[in-house]
Design a protein that fits this description.
The chain contains eight helices and 16 strands. It is of the alpha+beta class. Helix 1 packs antiparallel against helix 7 (250-268). Bound molecules: 2-acetamido-2-deoxy-beta-D-glucopyranose (5 copies).
Length: 277
């Protein structure tokens, strides 16, 4: 008789707990894999809270804009690295609201020569950046601060800033980006060429922020899916959508079902005293 009084609420609460656990498991395991793989914001190096269009080694390319320019190599407490046209840069500042990324050439042991960078229509120089002309394969005499040596195709070359009419260099002529302020100082002769090249400069990146906003606001996570649109996709709990998540999809019904799941549990929760008596 004691057993019967004790069993009834316990029985119901066990059923409720099973129901609830099962519900959570089912709804989470069925969430779209793209959605679950792209939580945001995420941490990277010393830049703090990052989100679309950036991605990393630990984050699939489809969580960002699937282009090398947006792939960050994260190192704890340091500026992340990016690779543009096979050259390594560090991202020293990011202004995500205005799509501005300040990058700096990395001084490597290999001392490879700076090359042109291709902007592929995914980013561009900002208003504060400009090209300078570098001449490679120059005779190594009398250029003072306007020159430096670097490695090109495994051999040392002498590089000069300026106009080939003056210098008679036999190598390639390249246009490389630097900050406008540093360039002006280089021209005035108040800054050495190697110092100019390792100054940070600002680039502007073109992501789909106008698309991303409604996606985020609808509970989605921005990304790209080459299969669908090539450029932008909004990952929602139920499946990828073009722009934003639809109410009535799984993301919405989770919030509605949750209280209903809790009500039977709390109603039938046995009092600890009834278990002890
Ligand atoms: C990241 O966001 C969290 C929560 O919004 C905030 O507490 C933290 O200060 C942010 N970190 C940085 C580096 O901005
Ligand atoms: C981002 O860039 C805008 C426009 O240049 C500027 O007004 C703003 O102060 C910058 N914000 C940060 C945090 O750098
Ligand atoms: C990139 O910047 C250059 C020079 O500022 C400008 O002429 C060009 O139109 C820009 N390209 C894009 C795609 O904005
Ligand atoms: C810089 O040089 C590159 C390569 O020659 C060129 O594509 C680009 O338009 C130039 N940008 C500016 C701002 O002059
Ligand atoms: C793209 O399509 C391929 C082949 O149909 C599929 O295996 C892959 O999962 C799809 N990618 C995404 C991100 O949906």
């Amino acid at each position: 008789m004691d057993t019967l009084v004790f069993l009834t609420p316990t029985f119901f609460s066990i059923i409720s707990i099973f129901f609830l656990l099962n519900f959570f498991q089912v709804s989470y395991s069925k969430d779209d894999v793209h959605f679950t793989s792209c939580p945001h914001p995420f941490d990277c190096g010393n830049l703090g809270n990052l989100s679309y269009p950036f991605w990393t080694d630990d984050r699939p390319a489809y969580c960002g804009y699937d282009h090398e320019v947006y792939k960050l190599k994260c190192i704890p407490n340091q500026p992340p690295y990016i690779t543009i046209s096979s050259q390594e840069f560090q991202v020293v500042h990011l202004n995500q609201t205005h799509g501005l990324m300040t990058i700096q050439r990395v001084e490597s042991e290999e001392n490879t020569c700076p090359e042109e960078i291709f902007t592929y229509n995914v980013f561009n120089y900002s208003d504060t950046a400009a090209n300078i002309t570098l001449l490679y394969g120059c005779p190594s005499r009398g250029f003072a601060d306007n020159s430096f040596t670097c490695k090109k195709d495994q051999s040392e070359t002498f590089a000069v800033f300026g106009n080939n009419d003056e210098y008679h260099c036999r190598g390639k002529v390249v246009e490389v980006p630097v900050g406008k302020k540093a360039r002006d100082e280089l021209i005035r002769g108040t800054r050495a060429l190697d110092k100019t090249l390792f100054e940070p400069f600002e680039t502007r990146y073109f992501a789909f922020d106008d698309y991303c906003r409604p996606c985020k606001n609808s509970g989605g996570r921005c990304g790209s899916n080459k299969n669908l649109t090539k450029v932008f996709v909004c990952y929602c709990r139920d499946r990828p959508h073009l722009i934003k998540c639809e109410p009535g999809g799984k993301g919405f019904s989770l919030g509605v079902k949750l209280p209903i799941g809790i009500i039977p549990l709390t109603n039938f929760l046995p009092s600890p005293f009834s278990l002890l008596s």
